[in-house]
Specification:
This protein has about 80 residues and is mainly α. The chain has helices spanning about 5-20, 30-45, 65-70. It contains three helices and no strands. The two termini are about 20 Å apart.
């Protein structure tokens, strides 16, 4: 897992101000990434998650709400 050095913090905050986001490489362990991905795929199948049906949800996105209540991996 990576750590942002204090010298990089200003640059990181500037990127958030400028772009609205920042990509943090290796922010979580690879094993957790796999567990999250696999759980999301399982939930999509179990809940028969389709694409959004409104302009808010988008026409091409899949959303699963209340993830914390659906599996402990999201805690």
């Amino acid at each position: 897992m990576s750590v942002i050095e204090e010298s990089q913090l200003g640059e990181t905050l500037d990127a958030i101000d400028r772009d609205g986001y920042v990509v943090l490489e290796d922010a979580i362990e690879p094993e957790l990434v796999v567990a999250l991905r696999d759980t999301i795929r399982r939930l999509q199948s179990e809940l028969d998650v389709g694409v959004g049906e409104s302009s808010f949800e988008g026409q091409y996105t899949r959303r699963i709400y209340k993830l914390l209540a659906k599996d402990p991996v999201f805690a």
